[in-house]
């Protein structure tokens, strides 16, 4: 499954273009469990009459065995409404699929990036005996301009241990003055307003948020319980108070 969206700026009376002045997230959810399917950060001060279409892979976090489900799309918060024409759709395909994602187990949620961020208990996940593939999926971004400009412009990393194996999701881009402009060839909207070109912790304006996906099948035993732990680091060390916010959701996806 892919999400597909495009935005058009509104033309006011007299022919002037009402631009997107800020970069609110657009988000896709499965209604009922508020499962986040995909996130896209809109561009800074976009002046194009038609913004580029952005497609985002969402198969691993949109799975369900319950048949028909509703999907909700959100764009711009109520306190910062954006006069924009929006066209959205879902693309469904089963081509080249050796296994079907059938179950999803929520793991961890982010929050204030402070000294208590890592105060989390491990999560136990029951693995079915007939499992074919197990994946760990996370969508993670850093925001805020607190101490050391965290967590938008400071280096943070996220570490997931499945059984005895640890997987690292790192964001070294903060500090790179061209960290986002260097990703134009892979989908970031060019020629935005403001400081769009600076590298950020897990995201760029005018770009989808790429999910972190790892195959953990070899780290689990079918028919038994898997233990999952998660911690984050700020510049290689423990998070400190007043470190901004980490927007994070992670899941275990079970395929048969």
Notes on the protein architecture:
The protein is an all-beta fold and 256 residues long. The protein has a single domain, classed as Jelly Rolls (Sandwich). The protein has no helices and 16 strands.
Radius of gyration from CA coordinates: 19 Å
How many helical elements? 0
- SSE sequence, one letter per element: EEEEEEEEEEEEEEEE
Number of separate structural domains: 1
Tell me the total number of β-strands: 16
Main beta sheet: strand number and arrangement?
4 strands, antiparallel
Shape estimate: globular
In terms of structural class, how would the helical and strand content be classed?
Answer: mainly beta
The CATH topology turns out to be Jelly Rolls
What would the average pLDDT be, to the nearest integer? 82
Based on the coordinates given, report the CATH architecture: Sandwich
Oligomer: single chain
Tell me the name of the CATH class.
Answer: Mainly Beta
Map the helices and strands:
Layout: E1 2-11, E2 17-18, E3 25-30, E4 35-41, E5 54-57, E6 71-75, E7 84-91, E8 101-112, E9 123-126, E10 133-143, E11 156-162, E12 165-171, E13 207-208, E14 212-215, E15 225-234, E16 245-255
Antiparallel strand pairs: 1-2, 1-5, 1-7, 3-4, 3-6, 4-13, 8-16, 9-15, 10-14, 10-16, 11-12, 11-15
Q: Keywords, please?
A:
Jelly Rolls, 16 strands, four-stranded antiparallel β-sheet, mainly beta, 256 residues
Give me a quick take on this structure.
The protein is mostly beta strands and 256 residues long. 0% of the residues lie in helices and 43% in strands. Strands 1, 2, 5 and 7 form a four-stranded antiparallel sheet that branches. Strands 6-3-4-13 form a four-stranded antiparallel sheet, with no helix packed on it.
